[in-house]
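Protein modeling request. Please complete all fields; requests missing the sequence field cannot be processed.
Requester role: graduate student
Desired output: 3D structure, C-alpha cell encoding
Chains: 1
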Amino acid sequence: MSSTRRFGLALSGGGYRAAAFHLGTLQKLHEMGRLASIDVISTISGGSITGAAYCLHQGTFEEFHDQMMRALLCCNVISHAIRSWSFMRFLLVALAFLVPSGILLFTRWAPLSVLPLLGLLFVVLRYQFRLLPVSREIERAYDAFFYHGQTLQHLRPTPILAIGTSNLQTGRPFTFSREWMADSTYSYYQPPIHFEAANFPVARAVAASSCVPFAFTPITIDPTYFREQTDVNRAHPQLIDGGVYDNQGIQKLTQANSRYECNTVVVSDAGAGLSPLGSRPYPNTVALLLRTVDLFMNRIKNAQMMANLFQRATEHSKCVAYLSLGWQLKNSIPGFIDNLAQGNISPSVVAARQLRAEWVTNPKEHRLALTAYLEQQVEYADLAARDLTTDEWQVVCQVGTNLTPLTPVQLSLLTRHAANLTEIQVKLYWP
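Delivered output (431 residues):
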C-alpha cells in the first residue's frame, strides 16, 4: 500500500537515558512547531516509556514535559521490582538451599554441601521465570509511575504510536498500537491469527518493548487477547526487547508498504556508541559475554543504519533526519556535506536547501563555501552558544541505560543535548 502519512518519529531504546534524551527531542520539535505534524511515533524500549506517556497525555505539552521530568528524577523501577513479593519469594527459595549448604560445611558431611547448591542450580534453570517473573514487576512499576491502568485504546488517535518488541517465536518484530497489535508473520498463517488490542495494558506493551534478554522474563500474550480462542494453540508469542531486532525503531517507518511508512522521518537515537576499553583485560566469562553482546548489537545497528537510513531512504526518496546521543553538534554540518558527497541526501532536501549545482556536483571542492552557507541557514552560531562543553558531552555519554532515577545534572544535559541536535538535524534534513 502507498503511504498517506508524511511525518514519522523514531525513538530508540536505552532505558531512562533514552527516555530523557527523547524528551529533549520532543520538546525541541514542539518549540519548532513540528511536533503537531508527526503522524507516527515508532518507539523501542526506553523510547517507549516516553512515547507512550506522550501519546496518553491529554493536557498541554508543558504539563507532560514537567510530569516526565519529575518521574525520571524520582521513579525507581528497579527498586520497585526488588521490593516486590516475587523477588522476596525468590530470595527465600535461594536461602532454603544456601543455608543448609553453609551449615554442612561445618560438619563431618561437608563434602555433601555441594548437593544443595546443585539443587538450587536445578531449580533456577528449571523454574527461574516462574519464581522470579521480573517483567511482571517491571510492568507494575511502569503502571504505577507512568500509565495508571490505561490500555492501548486510551492512546490518542494521532500521532499513531507503534511500540516495538521482538518475537522469539517468529524472529520478527511484534508491534503494539491503538487499533492493531501483531507480528506480520501471523497474517500468513492459514487462517490468519489476529489479536485484540483495545484492552491490552500499555504498561505491559512497554515492558515487552524494554524486556532486556537475560535480565527480564519474556512477555506472553494471554488468551484473552486472541480474537479466536482456538488460535491460542497455534501462536505462542514470546516478546523481548524491541532493540534486539531494531534498536532505533527506523524500520517500520521506512519500509515500503508498511502500515507505518512515512516520507519524512526524524530518528532520535540515544545510543552512545561502542566505547573503547583500551588494554583492560576481561576478568571473567560474564565480562567477555557482555562485551561480545555490545559488539554484536553495534554491528546490527550499523547494518540497520545502512539499510534503513541510507539505502532505503535514497531509493524511495525518503528524507531522514538522524541524531545520535554519541554525536557532537560540531560534526553535524561536516556530516551533511559528507552525505551529500556520497549521494545520501534526498533530492527534495537538496532543493529545499537551495544548494548551488556546483556544490552538489562536487561538495568536497566547495566545502568551505558550503559550510558557511549551511551555518547561516541553520543559525549555527546560536546553536553553538547553547552547545555542551566537551566535559558535559562526556557526562552524557557515560549515563547508564538502566531504569533508576537520573540526577538533575544528567537529566538537564541529556534533554539539552537532544534539543540542540534535533534543531540542527531537522533544519538540515527536513525538506
